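Entry 14. Structure prediction run on the chain below.
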Amino acid sequence: MRIERCDKEEVFEYVDLQKNDVILYLGGRIDDDNLYPPKYRKYLKAKIKRLKPTKIICHNHWYAKKYYEKGILTKNTKIDMAFVCYHYVAHGRIQGINPTDYNDHRTSMKILIDKNPNIVYAMYISEGYKPATVDVKNDWFREDYDLNNVKYFSFGREYSLSDFDDGGWHTPPPAAAAAINLGLTPLKRRLLGYEPRRRNASDGFGMLTNLMEAGFKNINILGFSAFGSDEDMSYHTEFGPENPRFAGRKYFDLGTSEDQSAEADILEYLVQTKKIKNVEDYDKFISCLKDEEDNHVKY
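Output returned:
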């Protein structure tokens, strides 16, 4: 079946996203098992219950599988929309830390449909050639799934840090910079230190900014690296040998056209300035992680 490209705003309208919806947007940080110890998962599950989101979006069905497996989402929770790169769906592969975690991705797509027969699969192309139509196979989905719920759109990944500067870290004239910088927080100093060039967004970050630009007022993120680029990396998992391009590297050191450090600092700034809300809590995460380590030592 051929699917015609539409505007992303049409996708948001189709899934009935309202400006004041309590949106929970689940990202790809869940790919790293080390960052979600058992006690922290229970904490996040409880926070989602209190949040009572009216719409849940997940950045692809691969990661959705992990949110269910780890119990962060209850088995009865329905995901309203999954953003997913069209090429990843068509070719059945993803650049994960351990790609074997996602071998059954067609099954994962169907499981999400079992949980919500009306889930919208919003497939996108964010770089390179963006055709007017794409081909979608019926056997990717459950037999009774309505393929009208598959949408295809495109967006551009390029951004500049100045796109997010509302005056909070405006660069002062050079003569005054040294004196003024003395009063800046470490986060604002880091933001000022980035080169003023265009960058490619990771797809999850790119779609988050699209949701913000569309005017949604209550976006709550989970599964995004929004604790800043100075986060302790010793807890992060290295990419496995199945992906030679990234083997032995950690998230902030992947060396792609994306800038994970800049994104982490921008996200932290957006949370601090209340543009978005982060369901996760770094102090709680570290506390749960240390409890887990103590238990391993004890037993």
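The mean pLDDT is 91.
Filed with the rest of this week's runs.
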